[in-house]
Specification:
This protein is of the alpha+beta class. The chain contains five helices and eleven strands. This is YigZ family protein.
Length: 202
């Protein structure tokens, strides 16, 4: 079972590719939602408001057939910008990433082949300048229990090295944990001996 994926650790440094007077500025961002993507696109369009083309591609999702992606040519000839950028996302096998390439026209047309090469190369430079990291795919579980089971629950959490995301201690107790996908079955089994402890996926 594959339970890891590759992404970029943080926003990459700006890169610049030049061809026949045209300038291509490239940016890569780690993203986890479409709202993140919109914010970064607005940020780039504001900082490069005199550029004619803000082309981009993004991919969200960590496998299990739930991958979403989009490629946008933003006025360039069809499939000369967005798809070459997306091709590099696939080539580097990264996800939860947005790459934006901003073009300033230099007066000389590059042709279809020249455009594809320029957008592909700029996207490649973006990812080469990025810090690519591997993350685990985690499932989240809610553990509900009474105070008397607190020691048992905390012991299992510690033994299995589970990440606590939130906890609420009122009349009864609720703890949300994230467990690496490949280790989830085993971790849940450890709670089964405490029959008053309920664990459900969230």
């Amino acid at each position: 079972m594959k339970d890891t994926y590759k992404t970029i650790a943080k926003k990459a440094p700006e890169v610049l590719f030049k061809d026949k007077g045209s300038k291509f500025f490239g940016y890569a961002f780690p993203v986890s939602t479409e709202d993140d993507i919109k914010l970064y696109l607005e940020e780039i369009k504001t900082s490069h408001n005199s550029a004619r083309h803000h082309c981009y591609a993004w991919q969200l999702g960590t496998g299990d057939g739930q991958v979403q992606y989009r490629a946008n040519d933003d006025g360039e000839p069809s499939n000369t910008a967005g798809m070459p950028i997306y091709g590099q996302i696939q080539s580097f096998n990264v996800t939860n990433v947005l790459i934006v390439v901003v073009r300033y026209f230099g007066g000389v047309k590059l042709g279809v082949g020249g455009l594809i090469n320029a957008y592909k190369t700029t996207a490649q430079m973006c990812l080469e300048a990025s810090s690519i990291i591997e993350k685990t795919i985690d499932n989240r579980y809610l553990i509900a229990f009474q105070y008397k089971d607190m020691n048992n629950v905390m012991r299992v959490i510690k033994e299995k090295n589970l990440q606590i995301e939130s906890q609420k201690m009122d009349l009864s107790c609720k703890i949300t944990v994230s467990i690496r996908k490949s280790e989830a079955k085993q971790a849940i089994k450890a709670f089964e001996s405490f029959y008053e402890v309920n664990i459900t996926e969230v």
